[in-house]
Amino acid sequence: MNVQDIYAEVDKRYSAAAGGVEAWYADSVTRAFGYTKEELSGILQDANLGLSCGNPLAIATLREGETVIDLGSGAGFGAFLAARKVGSSGRVIGVDMNEDMLKKAEALKALWGQKNVEFVQSQITRIALEDGIADCIISNCVINLVPEEEKQLVFNEMFRLLKPGGRFAISDILAKGPLPDAIKRSMALYVGCIAGASELWMYQKYLKEAGFNG
User: Fold this and answer.
1) Where is the Methyltransferase domain positioned along the sequence (predicted)?
2) What are residue 96's DSSP bridge partners?
3) CA-to-CA distance for 96 and 84, rounded, in angstroms?
4) For the chain, which domains are there?
5) Is pTM, for the whole model, over 0.85?
6) Which of 11, 102, 179, 202 has the least C-beta neighbours within 10 A?
């Protein structure tokens, strides 16, 4: 599988996902990861496509007035929830490469009048945003979808975009050990967030080479 084939298949998979899922399924997935009934009300219910693999907002400790970037924001689920936490004086920027997801997110933003959120169409490896603008970066089950050859670029972008002393909160699929070749070669498992999973030591390497420490 080459890089462009992976991006094309991921884009196709998430265009299909933008069409929506049964509400009971999306709700059960997100509730299993600790999102509360109150968090899932209103705009969050509409933006919830059941694509989470965790709850980065549970550890992000977002505060009023902060600027947050959501990598792989999809229909806006994490971005809209972050917007509630940073308030009207804060700013949330959702970044996603998929046009259908962005259309859904923008429609929900307009419907609910969510003024402190904006969306940018971009791969998360090369983001047209200025350096050092984010207090916090969040991401939920997205980095595993980036081709292995380009994963380091994601962490480089995170380091570039964060303010000095900034932080990140990531939920992702990691592998306990090397994946069998049969799994790594499966495009179905790649777009299903399995075949592209990194091992923990690889994440640590990406972070260190990007400039993070501690």
Assistant:
1) 63-210
2) 121
3) 20
4) 3-210 (3.40.50.150)
5) yes
6) 202
